[in-house]
Amino acid sequence: MSDWWAEGLLFENCNCTAVCPGHIHFSQKCTHEVCHGFWAIRFDGGRVGDVDLAGVDVVVVYETPQVMVDGGWKQVIIVSDRAGVAQRRAVEEILTGMRGGPWEILARFVGDGRPTRIARIRIEEAPERKSVTVKGVLEGAVEAIRGRNRAEPVTFENIYNQIHDTTQVIARGSTRYDDGEIVIANEGTHGLWSRFRWSAG
């Protein structure tokens, strides 16, 4: 179950002010009593057994306590309706930690994993902006903040994070999400993006 790899684009927005303390470490207090947001994932390559992950889009929506290490997170995984059955299963196994790797660490904190949903997902990427739409439930985007050198993004370097690359672009983001159970309304809050490469085995 543990021999796999994947790579692609990962971006996020939550309701913390920039930068989310939980992003630095889950033991830090987030800005508000409840932290909620999303991770948007575009698989540009990867393989789980004979299943090719390239072209699969996924969104993970979460709601956590102020100190994320306390656990009990609510989480729902939304997989693109363009993905095949085998791709959906493989992605779900990765993101619930069943196949090991970085998501196995995050899965320890999830106390309320909702059933995986299938929906139309659109992820768009520009040099300074990334956006995601899940038809009927989510509109989210992150945009790079301005640095001293306006030709370059503001980045974290050499920061430890389970799912992001060691270099991450700092951004501001906005989210509107409502699935009838989790509701998110962020505006100008914490955002990040990076390339990722995950593996296990």
Order of helices and strands: EHEEEEHHEEEEEEEE
Beta fraction: over 45%
Specify the structural class.
Answer: mainly beta
Q: Radius of gyration, rounded?
A: 16 Å
Distance between the termini: 9 Å
Counting H and I runs of at least 4 residues, what is the number of helices?
Answer: 3
Form type? globular
Show unreliable segments: none
Helix content: 10-25%
Number of strands: 13
Average pLDDT rating: 96
Q: Largest sheet, if any? A: 13 strands, mixed
Tally of individual domains: 1
Description:
- Helix content is 10%, strand content 54%.
- It has 201 residues and is mainly beta.
- Strands 1, 2, 3, 4, 5, 6, 7, 8, 9, 10, 11, 12 and 13 form a 13-stranded mixed β-sheet that branches.
- The longest helix has 11 residues, at 85-95.
Strand and helix map with partners:
Elements: E1 4-14, H1 21-24, E2 29-48, E3 51-52, E4 57-67, E5 73-80, H2 85-95, H3 102-107, E6 110-113, E7 117-119, E8 121-126, E9 129-134, E10 138-144, E11 155-156, E12 168-178, E13 183-200
Parallel strand pairs: 5-6, 5-7
Antiparallel strand pairs: 1-2, 1-13, 2-3, 2-4, 4-5, 8-9, 9-10, 10-12, 11-12, 12-13
